[in-house]
Amino acid sequence: MRKQLNRALAAGVCALALLLGAAPAAQAQLGVGRPKGQELIDGIIVKVDNQIVLRSDVETIYAQEVARAEGKALPPDLRCKILQSLVLNKLMLARADVDSVTVTDARVNGELDRRMAYFVQQVGSEKKLEELYNKSAKSLKDDLRPQVKEQLVQQEMQEKITGKLAVTPREVNTYFNKIPKDSLPYYSTEVEVGQIVMPAQVNEAAKQAAIAKLNDLRAQVLAGASFEELAKKYSEDPGSAVQGGLLGFFKRGELVPEYEAAARKLEPGQMSPVVQSQFGFHLIQFIERKGDSYSTRHILLKPATGTADASASAKKLARLRTQILSDSISFAKAAKDNSSDKASSTNGGLLANRQDGGSRIPLDKLDPAVFFTIDTMKVGHITPPLPYRTDDGKDAMRILYLKSNTPPHQANLNDDYQKIAAAALGEKKSKVLDEWFVKNRGTVYLEVAPEYAQCKVLDVQL
To answer: 204-301: which CATH number, 3.10.50.40, 3.40.30.20, 3.40.50.720, 3.30.70.360?
Structure first.
């Protein structure tokens, strides 16, 4: 049985990137581009059919494990274990080609937008992000695109292999009882925190101003102005503005319904009236059709929210808080029915631990804004409405709820069943992945650079 590190890696390097979001230390792994002065000497070290593993892929993960170990000894064969897991991922990609496992452009674009918004939030602004990596936001996004798509395909392939697996309470007990008592982990203080988020509503004046501006731009184009140049100057979609508003080709169902409905009514060269979607207001120019796909460009304006609108959301949250505290409605029900944060609203409003997907989060893993808010709260308390900025940079209000506060303790089934069950399931999935690897390793062409020949990347002990 491989060690826990290798099991985690076998689950896909993409899991770290997608679940942790990638702060600057992880951005190099994601391929966003490394900050100046941190370049790695690169080269192909493994070929798996038409898939490759680069030396930098191994070295970046190795450096992260060294940093995470904080001076503790690491396995001498760590690089080989990392490489073996990367080869498993590449094998999954090679088999995905054979099995026609794909992901839509819309899903890739959505993940790119989410990740870029997270990067911008972490460094403070898009300009700072561009300065950090000495690249435009569009170039960073273009760099990310093939790797994000690869990671999502890996996820789909792994889901196909292990997605239906589950563990029974008996299996969880058996897994826990196999752990030597002196090896049980010691958990620091953990909390369960819920939130209900309500976005600030765009006021009518701001909406009308955006519509009027787009109608003016539309008139300019009809009078002979260049749609592309106006998009570069005015569009608030950073991904497409630098390309004159060009979005490229999409199939039916891959863009938001309002945009698609308006676009598909147009003929090449025609412009739509102003169209509203969840992203703001669009002026769309149709370019061409190719089979089931169509290409457009657009100018996007996002009306600014105002304090009065945030106040309206705050008043609604205050009323909801009163209902929860008076037991008229549960926090979970209120979150499900009212919160705009879908990730937490479907989980009773509770924030998720990005490490294991559970609801209990170590204090040192909390967002600082949440930590300093709940630090003096009692269990069961709900804050008044607080200003909040969503991951995609939108103004909002939220209330926070401290559901539980678990003191430091050694792992046990009563307090930590969710964590232990997740670990047991991870081990079960790892075994199934190993079996799949052994079954399929002979179906691909493999070439390993001499410096890694001793790793025996296709040898898996079942």
So the answer is: 3.10.50.40
